Amino acid sequence: MQPLPPEEARRDGAEDAQWSRPECQAWTGTLLLGTGLLYCARVSVPVCAVSMSQDFGWNKKEAGVVLSSFFWGYCLTQVVGGHLGDRIGGEKVILLSASAWGFITAATPLLARLSSAHLVLMTFSRILTGLLQGVYFPALTSLLSQKVRESERAFTYSAVGAGSQFGTLVTGAVGSLLLDRYGWPSVFYLSGGLTLLWVCYVHRYLLSEKDLILALGVLVRGLRVSRRTKVPWRQLFRKPSVWAAISAQLSSACALFILLSWLPTFFKETFPSSKGWVFNVVPWLVAIPAGLFSGFLSDHLINQGYRTITVRKFMQVMGLGLSSVFALCLGHTSSFCKSVVFASASIGLQTFNHSGISVNIQDLAPSCAGFLFGVANTAGALAGVVGVCLGGYLIETTGSWTSMFSLVAAISSLGLCIFLLFGEAQRVDLSPTHEDL
Question: 191 lies in which domain range?
Answer without folding.
Answer: 19-422
